[in-house]
Amino acid sequence: MTQRTLVILKPDAVRRGLVGNILARYEAKGLAIAALEHRTIDGEMADRHYAEHVERDFYPPLRTFVTSGPLVVAVLEGDEAIEVVRGLNGATDGRKAAPGTIRGDLSMSNRENLVHGSDSPESAEREIGIWFPNL
Ligand SMILES: Nc1ncnc2c1ncn2[C@@H]1O[C@H](COP(=O)(O)OP(=O)(O)OP(=O)(O)O)[C@@H](O)[C@H]1O
Ligand SMILES: [Mg+2]
């Protein structure tokens, strides 16, 4: 089934010059870019995006991190796009993520793990609505 999913190339991806590398992986896999924007967000936007995590102990440093500089946010489209993107992204902790995945190849961190991908159709719809209300 064709799906849309929200992807964020977090500030570490921009700072490290990995935007092209990461987007190329999604494109080469066969996903289409339905929206793409370079943006810097404030804490309020971070709280909206990470609504399910705001009470977690790891959230305050995550909030600081995602607001620390520009990021690139995209909507990717394709067959089973949500699961496909999660597979390409790899496990949350870059040290444990499998080689071949974005995090497994390029991250050594649990927080600065380069990418976000929606985790369900409900999350994708909610997140696309927050980031791209006109899409
Ligand atoms: N234990 C932790 N310590 C530090 N940061 C964490 C931790 N767990 C999660 N994070 C940060 O919070 C983000 C959201 O956590 P979540 O559990 O949703 O992971 P995920 O679904 O793999 O990643 P994402 O939602 O960004 O795609 C992670 O991507 C990471 O940046
Ligand atoms: Mg998540």
TrEMBL record:
User: Does the keyword section mention Metal-binding?
Assistant: yes
As its record notes, the protein acts as a catalyst of: a ribonucleoside 5'-diphosphate + ATP = a ribonucleoside 5'-triphosphate + ADP; a 2'-deoxyribonucleoside 5'-diphosphate + ATP = a 2'-deoxyribonucleoside 5'-triphosphate + ADP
Tell me which stretches of the chain form a coiled coil: none
Which Gene Ontology terms cover its molecular function? kinase activity
Output the InterPro entries linked to this UniProt entry.
NDK-like_dom, NDK-like_dom_sf, Nucleoside_diP_kinase, Nucleoside_diP_kinase_AS
Keywords attached to this entry: ATP-binding, Cytoplasm, Kinase, Magnesium, Metal-binding, Nucleotide metabolism, Nucleotide-binding, Phosphoprotein, Transferase
Membrane-spanning parts: none
Q: Where in the cell is it found?
A: Cytoplasm
> Where's the active site on this chain?
H116 (pros-phosphohistidine intermediate)
Please give the Gene3D superfamilies that the UniProt record associates with this protein. Nucleoside diphosphate kinase-like domain
| Pfam families, per database record | NDK (PF00334)
Q: Which CDD domains match?
A: NDPk_I
Q: Please classify the protein's predominant subcellular localization into one broad category.
A: cytoplasm
Name the cofactor(s) required for activity, per the record: Mg(2+)
Domain Nucleoside diphosphate kinase-like stretches: 2-135
UniProt: ATP binding residues: K10, F58, R86, T92, R103, N113
Q: What is its EC number?
A: 2.7.4.6
HAMAP family per UniProt: NDP_kinase
Function noted in UniProt: Major role in the synthesis of nucleoside triphosphates other than ATP. The ATP gamma phosphate is transferred to the NDP beta phosphate via a ping-pong mechanism, using a phosphorylated active-site intermediate.
- Describe its partners and assembly state: Homotetramer.
The UniProt similarity line reads: Belongs to the NDK family.
User: Per its UniProt record, what NCBIfam families does this chain match?
Assistant: PRK00668.1
Please identify the protein, giving its name as recorded: Nucleoside diphosphate kinase
